[in-house]
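Narrative of accomplishments. A recurring question from our advisory board has been how the design workflow behaves on a single, concrete structure rather than in aggregate. To address it, we present the structure tokens for one chain from the evaluation set, followed by the sequence designed for it. No filtering or post-editing was applied between the two.
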């Protein structure tokens, strides 16, 4: 029985960080289908189409409050089966006001993306063998 490929959707507006994630996924998870949205509207449409196993979301996307986006994603039944990972350039001390929205979620500081993302993806319950 052939397993379907694992789907990851990245919602990130920075070309630099989109490219970093693409390189990391290609190197450590060649069996993953990575899809990329450079804004939140395209990303939400893609979520509905793809039903990704993992959703990696930039907490500071333009035109939307990151806490609102994450809270809505977590509360909507369609996203229950997707693992949510948040990336941010904000330092931990500046995220205190968003603690409730981020509670229980893996949060990666963008400066640690190369170190933390591969390990975090490997620990996802839906990770490919």
């Amino acid at each position: 029985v052939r397993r379907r490929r694992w789907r990851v959707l990245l919602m990130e507006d920075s070309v630099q960080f989109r490219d970093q994630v693409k390189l990391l996924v290609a190197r450590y998870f060649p069996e993953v289908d990575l899809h990329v949205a450079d804004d939140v509207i395209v990303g939400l449409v893609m979520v509905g189409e793809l039903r990704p196993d993992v959703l990696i979301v930039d907490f500071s996307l333009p035109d939307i409050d990151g806490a609102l986006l994450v809270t809505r994603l977590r509360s909507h039944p369609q996203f229950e089966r997707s693992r949510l990972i948040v990336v941010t350039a904000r330092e931990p001390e500046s995220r205190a006001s968003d603690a409730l929205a981020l509670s229980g979620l893996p949060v990666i500081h963008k400066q640690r993306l190369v170190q933390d993302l591969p390990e975090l993806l490997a620990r996802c319950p839906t990770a490919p063998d």
